[in-house]
Amino acid sequence: MSLNEEVEALRSVPLFAKIEPSKLKLLAFTSDRLTFAAGSELFQEGDPGDAAYIILDGKAEVLINTPNGELAVAKVGKNDFVGEIAILIDVPRTATIRAETELTTLVLSKDLFFRMVAEFPEMAVEIMRELAHRLESTTGQLREANNG
């Protein structure tokens, strides 16, 4: 994937939609590109959070550990952003992300992530929206499980 294709991919991520293309080019240039084979893990629940990942292509499962083994709680794919919780609040990873298909990602280090949030407050607003959406979804799932 070329740098220009990565910039276009970043523009498709709601978190970065309002950031000017020159800044996205810098973000793409300074990010690491990693490809994961199907079945491999980006990170495991409990690992330290040192980076967040933007999925450029492919699909993955979000898994949590339970007393009965792993439980898939969500699926993520192209234009999704994962791993931000652990770097936002300095806690261990809250879930495992496992590639279902070959997965192409851009990796944002913790330092780069915070520089971007500081420079682009609208990015912080989009992060809050995404986290609120996830919380609402999880609350709904818990309500269904409790009633079922």
Structure in words:
The protein is an alpha+beta fold and 148 residues long. The chain has a single domain (3-147), classed as Jelly Rolls (Sandwich). It has helices at 3-11, 21-30, 84-89, 110-119, 121-147, and strands at residues 32-36, 41-43, 51-57, 59-66, 69-77, 81-82, 96-99, 103-109. The strands form 2 sheets. A 4-stranded antiparallel beta sheet has the order 1-8-3-6. Strands 2-7-4-5 form a 4-stranded antiparallel beta sheet, with no helix packed on it. Helix 1 (3-11) crosses helix 2.
SSE topology sketch:
Elements: H1 3-11, H2 21-30, E1 32-36, E2 41-43, E3 51-57, E4 59-66, E5 69-77, E6 81-82, H3 84-89, E7 96-99, E8 103-109, H4 110-119, H5 121-147
Helix pairs in contact: 1-2, 4-5
Short description:
The chain has helices spanning 3-11, 21-30, 84-89, 110-119, 121-147; strands at 32-36, 41-43, 51-57, 59-66, 69-77, 81-82, 96-99, 103-109. The chain is α+β, with helices and mostly antiparallel strands and 148 residues long.
Summarize the amount of helix as a percent range: 40-55%
State the order of secondary-structure elements, H for helix, E for strand.
HHEEEEEEHEEHH
The CATH architecture can be named as Sandwich
Q: What is the CATH level 1 assignment?
A: Mainly Beta
Distance from first to last alpha carbon: 46 Å
Residue ranges: pLDDT <50 for 5 or more in a row? none
What name does CATH use for the topology? Jelly Rolls
